[in-house]
Design a protein that fits this description.
single chain, mainly alpha, 16 helices, 77% helix
Length: 401
């Protein structure tokens, strides 16, 4: 293609290629955010960072993500998806560079906050770009990616990092250097993708915090919000306390085992999302939440008896239920949304998710040393059961999907 000045415009990837790049970039950013988790035991043992301090870093990550969603969730509607997506990748790269130098709590907290900003901007911008470029079939593929990429990416990052901690050289840095290289390549590939949003005025006004709700029924948002808070609160609990659960209740400090324990509650989310696409959103949301709540109650029992096999099996079942519920909730919210509404709706989705996880994380930070991890897990089980009931009740009165 020749542009007005006679030069040749860069060739752009097809929409299917753009969908693949956006999916990979969204996943990779969350892969990077999962990589510090298997190192938490090293930070505890070598650097004296306590359980409550590690919980603070999780809250810092979640709060930074929530702020990014609230302030920058609709920015890509005005500047375009690609440039804002590149900013999220740059922030992710900065985060892993900082984390490769951790020997104290402030550095760890800074790296996690940078990752939080990266994940918040990516959730709305790359998530909307995924939906913009998603193929029509299979059904709900955009919702599946936007719901599954964050938890799946975090879990894969934890597993990769855990493996390198146990078997690779330079356990504190190698995983971070590898993902930084991948993120750089993906930023370059984004430059070859087509833009799906025209640059328009109003970028500064879009920074004004705003919660976008779905057209038609706020009851849908209430039900979906309860589902998001329930599932993300438990994922945040695993993120903060997987090393402690593994060491104190499952009797091992192995970094790869820590990664598997953390990942077990999110790794099969895509399976649940695929099931949701087969059986219908509202039905799979209800069944998924029931399976999720019951499975986490079994997880708490397995912690009490110290049985890692039951713990992992129940966590995997919870992961499938979580994936079905979150994919269905996003599909319900995005049904019929216009392109200009997608980034704002996804920002709302993830703001609720991270906000709920941050709030429960603050409670964990304040009470874990007093209550103990087992009692805290029991409280979380009761909370996720209650919220699951709220979500199911709120969506019962909407027409079936």
């Amino acid at each position: 293609m020749i542009v007005a000045d006679g030069s040749r415009a860069p060739r752009r990837l097809a929409r299917t290629g753009a969908f693949a790049v956006a999916t990979a970039a969204l996943t990779a950013i969350f892969v990077s955010s999962g990589m510090p988790i298997p190192l938490y035991n090293l930070y505890r043992l070598d650097d004296g960072i306590t359980n409550s301090a590690l919980a603070v870093t999780t809250v810092g990550y979640l709060c930074a993500t929530a702020v990014a969603l609230l302030a920058f969730g609709r920015l890509s509607n005005h500047l375009g998806r690609r440039p804002v997506a590149v900013v999220s990748i740059v922030l992710a790269i900065a985060g892993v560079i900082v984390l490769s130098q951790v020997h104290s709590l402030p550095i760890l907290l800074l790296g996690r906050v940078l990752q939080g900003f990266a994940c918040g901007i990516a959730s709305s911008t790359l998530g909307a770009y995924v939906v913009d470029t998603a193929p029509a079939k299979p059904r709900a593929i955009g919702a599946l990616v936007t719901a599954s990429a964050p938890p799946f990416g975090i879990s894969m990052g934890a597993i990769l990092s855990g493996f390198l901690v146990e078997s690779g050289p330079a356990p504190r840095t190698l995983a971070f250097h590898l993902i930084a290289g991948v993120l750089i390549v993906l930023a370059l590939l984004l430059a070859l993708c087509p833009e799906t949003m025209q640059r328009t005025p109003g970028a500064l006004r879009s920074l004004r915090p705003r919660i976008q709700t779905p057209r038609g029924s706020r009851r849908i948002l209430i039900g979906a919000a309860a589902a998001f808070i329930a599932t993300w609160a438990i994922a945040g609990f695993y993120q903060a306390f997987a090393p402690s659960m593994t060491a104190d209740y499952l009797d091992t400090n192995n970094g790869l085992t820590v990664a598997l324990v953390f990942s077990s509650v999110v790794i099969l989310n895509p399976v649940g999302g695929i099931v949701a696409g087969w059986v219908g959103s509202r039905w799979s949301l209800r069944v998924g939440l029931i399976a999720f709540a019951l499975a986490f109650c079994v997880v708490v029992a397995a912690m009490t008896v110290g049985d890692i096999r039951i713990f992992l099996l129940a966590s995997l079942i919870a992961s499938i239920g979580m994936g079905a519920a979150s994919t269905s909730a996003i599909d319900i919210l995005m049904d019929g949304a216009e392109p200009l509404e997608r980034a704002g709706l996804l920002a709302t989705v993830y703001l609720i998710s991270y906000g709920g996880a941050a709030t429960t994380g603050l409670f964990s930070t304040a009470t874990v040393d007093t209550l103990g991890l087992s009692t805290l897990a029991t409280i979380f089980a009761a909370l996720c059961t209650f919220l699951s009931i709220v979500a199911i009740a709120a969506l019962r009165v909407t027409k079936p999907g």
